[in-house]
Amino acid sequence: MNVRNYCFAFLCISANAYAFEPLNTDDAGTVKAGGNQIEQYFFSINRNGSAQQADIITPGEEYVGRTDAKAFPFTYTRGLSEKVEASFSATYYNEPSGNFSKFSNYVFAAKWRFYEDEKNGYAFAIKPSVILPAGKQQQVTGLGMAAFNYGANLIASKYWEDFEVHINAVYMHSPYNTNYTVGLSADPNRTNLFIVSVAPVWTVIKDFKIALDIGATTNPPTTEQYLSHYALIAAIYSITENIDLGASYMRTGLNYSETIAAQASGATRTEVGVTWRF
Fold first, then answer.
1. Which of 56, 152, 266, 277 could be stapled to 52 by a disulfide with Cβ–Cβ 3.0 to 4.6 Å?
2. Domains in the chain, ordered, with CATH?
């Protein structure tokens, strides 16, 4: 959103929200009524030799394998009204490969901005989602869970002239096919997952934003400590009014020193792509 004051920013939230990519934290904005949005990204995960099974659970981009991964997440979003949007997501995995489909993470979601304060620049939204079951061998490799997953994200956003903050609180019910391993691990997994995150975003110059995104999530393996953490930096450049280029770099670990300090993180993820509104 290219804004000059918070009132204008808030009034235009539905038309110009950058939504999900390349951050983990979502914002309360929705695609304008009758509008469309396509997000096509590429990410590369480096496991750094870590024994930690799971990276941060990003709804729609779950990967709990123990090897490196390269994938192309895609999301299509349609504005149903000025306050409601619906979306469909899928991910194509170039790596790892095996005797399974490279397409996974089929997600259906809807976002409803149920409260807004135009004068003070506040917005609140709820985003329920359903993730279709992955294949059994996809679960074994870590490309998803071979069972229906569902959840909801409670979103709060605050807008100033050149600065905005987004806060997410997510619950995911993530059962899996217990007859098969998850990410090549036979350890039992927690099925009730919680994620909390915050993302401050600065407009540095016209059409260019930078963001910091930090959070914590339930660590799925029951044999490991309860929480995992991440820290992410991102940049968003609007080359036109309707086309954004985004890039981010994320580090994950069992504590924040691993995500920020020079010591080795549990894993890293580099992501780059484009958002097109039409």
1. 266
2. 6-277 (2.40.160.40)
